[in-house]
Amino acid sequence: MRDRDTPREAALLADLPTPCVTVDSDVLDRNLRAMAAHTAGLGLALRPHAKTHKCVEIARRQVELGATGLTVATVSEAEIFADGGLSDLFIAYPVWPSPQRAARLRALADRVALRVGVDSAQSAQALARVLPGLEVLIEVDSGHHRSGVAPEAAGGLAVAAQRAGLSVRGIFTFPGHGYGPGRQKQAADDEAAALEAAAGAVTAEGLEAAVRSGGSTPTAALTGGTLTELRPGVYVFGDAQQLELGTCTWEEIALSVASTVVSRSGQKIILDAGSKVLGADQQVWATGGGRLLDHPDARITALSEHHATVVIPDGAPVPRLGEVLRVVPNHVCATVNLADELIVVSGGAEVDRWPVAARGANT
Q1: What does the alpha-carbon distance between residue 112 and residue 125 come to, in Å, rounded to a whole number?
Q2: Nearest-angstrom CA–CA distance, 229 and 213
């Protein structure tokens, strides 16, 4: 990977106003095709999570390659992708319909196939009052211990939602505890067991659990069992977390932040991409604040708002002042949400600029 740049690519990087977020469209396309083929081979529907890329152009490509629709995290994300022509949306979140949000949900349901998550009888009743007949999935806790009900409670909640006037289509979960070294297999097994138990609880109440939705980028390769739908997000770009988890390779990194060396001392350099560009996420097991695509043994040892401190291993050549390097952020979702646009490159040339349409769409 140290020799990956061609002179043309190096010239392109030098011409960019750093720091900026770049996407290699050839790598992106390979990643999109690989996940589409993986889920098709398993006989699963693919409903990728758009909170990673927040970009209408990428969402359209995912659907062109066979995705049944998109997953989003918020009502405002759903509105933006609906505006972009995406017509099948699942808000994978326990939506609470405040008066202002209820009006927006009604407007969304008039123009797209809309589905939302619920994890309480109270929220189900509130949703039914403002949008009777709305399709919902019951959220199940499969081990991440965030939102969601215990698997055995899914049947009772499904009955409550149905009686309130909602249309219960099935169940969903997020195996988020797979984000850690060596945890992927256990998280995938927990997810399968939880969804199987939840589906049994729902069907025991005389209702159907036709949709059993789950998955994540770290667990996608291990998916099996009772799932019918997969919802990975980070796979489109990859990031330093996925590299360290072994979920992706260097060759599958599609997004990086072009950043200039502005200071150097010994084996230490300072880049102009700080936490306001890269994001500040760093899991306790991560080896640094991100990685360098062309210097894989280097480590980002500190991030401040506009500085990244990088230590180059002893004996390795130190990048020169003014050199532009490609930084792989720890958590790509946070990085994208800090950018106005993605600079798209192919074969060493800039080919497009895509707006991050859903940037800051948090409501």
Answers
A1: 22
A2: 5
- Specify the residue for token string 């401040």: 304
Residue with tokens 């360098």: 292
Q: Residue type for 145, please?
A: H
Residue 46 contacts residue 230 (beta carbons within 8 Å): yes
Token reading at 71: 């997953």
Contacts of 194 (CB under 8 A, 6+ apart): 140, 141, 142, 143, 151, 173
Digit-coded pLDDT (tens) for 221-266 = 998 779 999 999 999 999 999 999 999 999 999 999 999 999 999 9
Distance CA 183, CA 179 (A): 7
pTM score over 0.70: yes
Q: Do residues 308 and 318 make contact, with C-beta atoms less than 8 angstroms apart?
A: no
Q: What is the rounded distance in angstroms from the CA atom of residue 30 to the CA atom of residue 231?
A: 18
d(CA 182, CA 296) in angstroms, rounded, equals: 21
Placement of tokens 């190096």 in the chain: 10
